[in-house]
Amino acid sequence: MLAHGGTVTTRQIADTCGVAEGTLFRVFETKEDLVTAVIDDILDPESVVASLRSIDPHATLADAVRRIVEIIGDEGRQIRALMMAMHLRAGQGTGGPPEPDPTSHQKLMRRHAAVASTLTEVVGRYGPHLRVSAHVAGAFIQATTVATSMPGMPEELRTPETLAGLLYHAISEEPHVQ
Question: How far out from the chain centre does Cα 115 lie?
Answer without folding.
Answer: 9
